[in-house]
Amino acid sequence: LMAVPFFITMGCLMGSGGISEKLIALANACVGWMRGGMAMVNIVASYFFGGISGSASADTASLGSILIPMMVDQGYDGDFSTAVTITSSCEGLLVPPSHNMVIYATTAGGISVGSLFLAGYLPGALLAVSLMVGSYIISKKRHYPKGEKFSFKGLLKQIGVSIWALAAVVIVVVGVVAGWFTATESAAIAVFYSLIVSVYIYKGLDWKGVWKCLEQCIDTLSIVLILISTSSIFGYCLTTLHVPDMVANAIVGFSTNPIVIALLIDLILLFLGCIMDMAPIILIATPILLPIATSIGIDPVQFGIIMVLNCGIGLLTPPVGSVLFIGSAVSGVKMERVVKATLPFYLCMIVVLLLLTFIPELSIGLPMLLGT
Predict the structure, then answer these.
(1) I need a labelling partner for 306 at 20 to 30 A (CA). Which of 114, 272, 314, 330 fits?
(2) What average pLDDT score do residues 331-355 get?
(3) Crossing angle of helices 207-240/278-295, nearest 10°?
(4) Looking at per-residue confidence, does 117 or 52 come out higher?
(5) How far apart, in Å, are the Cα atoms of 310 and each of 214, 282, 284, 305, 352?
């Protein structure tokens, strides 16, 4: 569990250290030339930033405060800009290093954090592509503008500027997968690296800003760690009362068809996402639903990806969707308008969820290929 506070601290340092602007510029060099270019930039920047922060809330607050006003100034509707920002922020939950993956691995027991990290890359990219397709269709229909023409020279320049930020992800993932150090050790190294990059290379933070950033980390960590401790007690009570067995029997009693059971698991997680935050769902639902999932042939690593995406969708759904509220607050657009604008993107995310549920190779293909 020590990896969790380290990863959260790393994300806070990198997010406050001037990294956002560098990643936005890199994303603009990659996809800004397309129709609805700023929407595409938003989505790709979230993929890059997710590899640093691992938090949908941090992604929305950091990138949204920059990109939403930029999009509105260029002629995009405020509700559309906000919808793109909040939905693309869920990529950060899948792209490593995600502290939610660590929480799942701890709760499930016996699952390699390195395998989970590798398993998140392709689903994160698939989600990004799906959102880009939806954004392109809407942009074409509403005649949103294109960006500047693609420049290979400009792309190389931005890669050179952003390489220090992206290297943090390489340190964590390669180190864990190659077995050079544990998830906790890699997270501690990443915190030290993030501090050096933010203060001395990008110079987005001074030492006073570092202390302020650490204060914000403590606020977040206190919530996460209290949830983990209390959920352990709750989990013990559930086990003592045989709740997992009763839920498993109820689901299996409803149908013995693996497809129906898989869809039921998705529906349960989506419903929980509407009324609970992400960490409690992972901590409480994993011991109950994981045995059912494995009984119908779903790999534990694949189930971790399915659970994280389900919870990510829950962060965007009322009445408890924290990312939805943050997006509305950052943009100043009423939540009702944001929800309405998000409906097409919900469809994109559900399609990706179904693909991940029924095509295991999308999740476990890369870990199996690399033998983790």
Answers:
(1) 330
(2) 92
(3) 50
(4) 117
(5) 30, 10, 14, 9, 10
* Per-residue CA distances from 303 to 51, 87, 255, 296 (Å): 20, 21, 19, 11
Q: How many other CB atoms are found less than 10 A from the CB of residue 344? A: 16
| Residues 152-183 pLDDT 10s | 888 888 888 888 877 777 777 777 777 787 77
The residue ranking higher by pLDDT, 175 or 87, is: 87
- pLDDT at position 54 over 70: no
Helix axes 361-369, 335-358, angle to 10 degrees: 60
Looking up tokens 């009702």, which residue turns up? 336
Cα distance between residue 199 and residue 276, in whole Å: 37
Of 99, 89, 80, 85, which is closest to residue 7 (Cα–Cα)? Answer: 99
Kindly give the residue spans of alpha helices, DSSP state H, lying in 74-151. 78-88, 91-94, 99-108, 113-142
The upper half-sphere exposure of residue 45, i.e. CA atoms within 13 Å in the direction of its Cβ, equals 32
pTM of the shown model:
0.82
156 contact partners, CB below 8 Å, separation of at least 6? none
Mean predicted confidence (pLDDT) in 127-150? 90
**Distance of CA 99 to CAs 51, 93, 145, Å?**
11, 8, 36
Sole residue written with tokens 């509407």: 274
Which residues are CB-contacts of 28 (< 8 A; sequence separation ≥ 6)?
A: 37, 41, 147, 158
